[in-house]
Amino acid sequence: MNQHSAESSTKSYVVPLIIRGNVITDDLIPFDTRRGECTILTPDTQKHLSQLTLSDPSKMGDLYEISLDEIVDFLNELGHRLAPDENEHIARALEMNMLSGSHSREMLHGMYEGMRKALFRENVNAVIDHNVGREYLEGWSERVLQDRKVSVRAFGARTVHINAGNGPPISMYGTLNGAILRSDNIVKIPSNDPFTATAVALTMIDMAPEHPITRHMSVAYWKGGDARVESELYKPANIEKIVAWGGAASMGAIRKYLVPGIDLVALDPKLSISIIGKDAFATAEKTAEAASRLAMDIGAFNQSGCVSSRTVFVESGTGEDGITRLNDFGKAVFDNMQALPAHLSGHHPAFDPVLREELDGIRFSDAFRLIGGKGSEGAIIVSQEDEQVDFSDRLSCRVANLVPLDDVQNVARWVTLDTQTVGVYPDHLKKMLRDDLSLRGVQRFTSLGCAVFAGMANPHDSLELTRRMARWIIDEKFDEDVIDHGAGMCIAG
To answer: 339 exposed, middle or buried (CB, 10 Å; 0-12, 13-18, 19+)?
Structure first.
């Protein structure tokens, strides 16, 4: 339901509280979304905490009465039911996301299509096989060691998922991982994507209301940092894991509740870069290819993801000829970015006003050349020396900074533990750079133009995320001579 206020054009949407298959819409209170262009009306989560938390973890036992194949079947059917043109809940999520996030209808439609495909059978099986190992999810996997036999199994946990709102597909990490691990899941929805997780849960209820996966999925909204909710929720009696995507402020708010018994799986905010070697300027064709690929890594989905390139280090040379070369390249990147199709990129609907002030501040600086940046179309900032802008951590809304280098290996001075993805052109440079840059903090190397093609069947943010979300339990059987004579190795801990 959406309503129009008599006093304002701001739309209001009811966002139900979902607790293990039960849909609650009583006693609604309003909350603003990130952009302030719509309001959500949702129950006060604090009043329902006794139902939201699962104080008896043995009640997760129903998840272990179904096979892994049944879980895959459930997720596969769910994915096929999430088509934005056919699912009324996803259609509502898309409409709300247009008013609260940073994407157009065309972009969101493509993102929701990609999100649901993550649940298709072949993708779920890839996550199972490559991220955990089917043998640890099917039952107890036995291995023989020097003095004992050990059986190992991955168990789920009572988990709170603090979702980021920079793209609907992030909702799939908790849905997919929580299901295959047989976890009890509480999803906190973000203010800039206030309905995607709810839409998925409502679809589960429509599809299979009594299924154990449905019965262990809860979705709620509360304002981040609300001590009334978080001081009670974040207790070892209620949860074991918090999987959090967020900025420094939200991570700090969560960490103050950490005590023994609660494991924070933190996906801290990251920044991504590109590295372009001198080979890009060997021919006009290679220059055009590099410009086209870089435009994709900057502009795709309006630069909303951590994987999106923001600072680009280019081995153009820092002499007069090199800077001229880089300025021309920057113009080509900008033009390619403007030409990206509407389902991938476009003018930003809520351009950062602080970033706009920064762009205006360097517009007539000799140290930088600004290409674009007059409206919400995005911009390319070309450094005229080998220094990046001092607001590099603010780059967003399709704004990137190109920095000239004399030697591509000089990029190491700018790499930190906050560097997530590095798009590289040409590909052969990766082998030369990756060991050193990995030690300095880089988490992912990919071909230039492919940064947004991040998959789920691989590590993320230097974590094997699915394995971190599991509780790993062992069952040991010692050899007889160890029991009789104490011949085993004793390691206390």
So the answer is: exposed
Lowest model confidence (mean pLDDT) among 36-45, 150-159, 234-243, 244-253 = 244-253
The better pLDDT of the pair 100, 75 is held by 75
Number of domains in the chain: 2
> Is-contact 70 42, C-beta < 8 A?
no
Task: Give the pLDDT band (50/70/90) at residue 438.
Answer: very high
Q: Is residue 240 part of a domain?
A: yes
Tokens standing for 438?
């990995």
Cα 86 to Cα 108, 202, 342, distances in angstroms: 15, 14, 21
* 416 CB-contact burial (10 Å; exposed 0-12 / middle 13-18 / buried 19+): exposed
Residue 406: which CATH number?
Answer: 3.40.309.10
What does pTM read for this prediction?
Answer: 0.91
pLDDT (mean) for 211-240: 95
Read off the tokens for 83: 């088509």
* Domain encompassing residue 307: 271-447
- 151-155 contacts, C-beta under 8 A, 24 or more apart: 151/474, 151/475, 151/476, 151/477, 152/472, 152/473, 152/474, 152/475, 153/472, 153/473, 153/475, 154/181, 154/467, 154/470, 154/471, 154/472, 154/473, 155/181, 155/182, 155/470, 155/471, 155/472, 155/473
Using the predicted structure, report yes or no on whether residue 211 has a pLDDT greater than 90: yes
Are 263 and 324 in a shared domain?
no
d(CA 287, CA 23) in angstroms, rounded, equals 55
Question: What are residue 422's DSSP bridge partners?
Answer: 273, 445
Domain assignment present for residue 280? The answer is yes
275 and 169, same domain (yes or no): no
Task: Examine the domain organization and report whether 293 and 184 are in the same domain.
Answer: no
- Residues 288, 217 within the same domain: no
At 236-245, the pLDDT tens digits run 999 999 999 8
Q: Rounded to whole angstroms, how far apart are CA atoms 485 and 289? A: 70
- Does 59 share its domain with 167? yes
pLDDT tier at 271, thresholds 50, 70, 90: very high
Mean pLDDT over each residue of the chain, to the nearest integer: 93
Q: Is residue 392 part of a domain?
A: yes
CATH code of residue 42: 3.40.605.10
Question: How many Å from the N-terminal Cα to the C-terminal Cα in the chain?
Answer: 55
Tell me what pLDDT residue 2 has: 45
Q: Is position 218 within any domain?
A: yes
The answer to whether residues 97 and 77 belong to one domain is yes
Question: Same structural domain for residues 256 and 275?
Answer: no
On whether both 323 and 281 belong to a single domain, the answer is yes
As given in the structure block, the two tokens for residue 4 are: 């129009």
Q: What is the pLDDT of residues 32-53, one digit of tens each?
A: 988 878 999 999 999 999 999 9
Burial of 391 (0-12, 13-18, 19+ CB in 10 A): middle
**Can you tell me the mean pLDDT for 244-250?**
80
